[in-house]
Specification:
With about 290 residues, the protein is α/β, with parallel strands linked by helices. The protein has one domain: Rossmann fold. The protein contains twelve helices and eight strands. It has helices at about 5-20, 25, 65-70, 90-95, 110-125, 160-170, 190-195, 195-200, 210-220, 235-240, 245-255, 270-285, and strands at about 80, 100-105, 130, 145-150, 170-185, 205-210, 220-230, 255-265. The protein is globular, with a radius of gyration of 20 Å. The termini are far apart.
């Protein structure tokens, strides 16, 4: 079994190589990180091409959703993107928050940070910055962000509960997140889960959907909503690296589901919650016999 640090190192090494590749090369692998397959194109990633603020040079084809589309970003917001890569979701978020807002991308791969900064400089975006660091120990102060987004990244972090706790810490009271990620329903075969390459490919690091949502509840979030869900199918030529033909058949018929989900949740507090509480008090005091 790989240790937490070994898994992090495997992910960092793989994504450093991906940073030097083009989108077409990355799209030819499962989340940009496994053996090329002629069936794997667009299995995880969604199409950004019609999204306002999209920058093709910053899209490495590594995501599994469109969290910025669901994130309800408003002009002037401070937005943090976890696992920001070459900056794709940051630039989409910047379109929504405008020049009056601020976008912070966090990534622990130096090559990705360099690429993202180059993209931001070419675009002249002075209110988009990229910070090197782990998302389970963010280089950000408490209560900073109005919105947090992330695209197919938490599944790469061994301690997901710690990341969710960090998200709660960094969000302002009343802030919210919209995160796309990979989750499971049922158990992966041991050969898939134990392999560091498959972990870096976004699948082996996924946890049960029920556990994922429970971590969010336990952290104190409210209004937890599944904004989108889609099934993920791993091509047989990739599964063949890990399983026998009989194992592949059993896996495909065994009831294990791999899904991309986009989850929304809010941190309690803020003006909205206070207004709702005030309205409830006013209603209670106006009931018959109250006054």
């Amino acid at each position: 079994m790989n240790t937490e640090q070994e898994l992090k190192n495997a992910v960092k090494e793989r994504y450093a190589r991906i940073a030097e590749q083009g989108k077409a090369e990355n799209a030819a692998s499962c989340c940009g990180a496994t053996t090329p397959s002629n069936k794997v194109y667009n299995i995880m990633m969604d199409d950004y091409s019609g999204t306002e603020g999209y920058v093709e040079d910053a899209d490495l084809g590594l995501g599994c959703g469109l969290p910025t589309r669901f994130a309800q970003i408003r002009p002037g917001d401070t937005v943090i993107d976890l696992g920001s890569g070459a900056g794709n979701d940051c630039f989409v978020a910047r379109h929504e928050t405008g020049a009056a807002g601020k976008v912070i991308g966090i990534d622990f791969t130096p090559a990705m940070i360099r690429k993202a900064r180059m993209n931001a400089e070419k675009l002249g975006y002075n209110n988009v910055e990229f910070r090197e660091g782990d998302i389970d120990e963010m280089p950000v102060s408490d209560n900073v962000a109005d919105v947090i987004v992330s695209n197919c990244v938490l599944n790469l972090v061994p301690d997901k509960k710690k990341v969710i706790g960090e998200i709660f810490r960094v969000l302002k009271p009343g802030g919210h997140f919209s995160i796309s990620d990979i989750v499971l329903v049922g158990d992966l075969p041991d050969a898939l889960r134990a392999d560091a390459e498959m972990y870096a490919g976004c699948v082996a690091g996924a946890i049960q959907q029920a556990d994922y949502l429970q971590f969010i509840r336990d952290a104190g979030f409210r209004q937890i909503t599944l904004q989108k869900e889609k099934p993920i199918v791993i091509p047989e030529d990739i599964l063949g690296k890990y399983l026998s033909p009989e194992g592949i058949e059993h896996f495909n018929k065994g009831g294990t589901g791999i899904f991309s989900i986009t989850v929304y949740a809010e941190k309690p507090g803020g003006k909205r919650e206070k207004a709702e509480d005030a309205a409830q008090v006013e209603k209670a005091c106006c009931d018959p016999g109250c006054c």
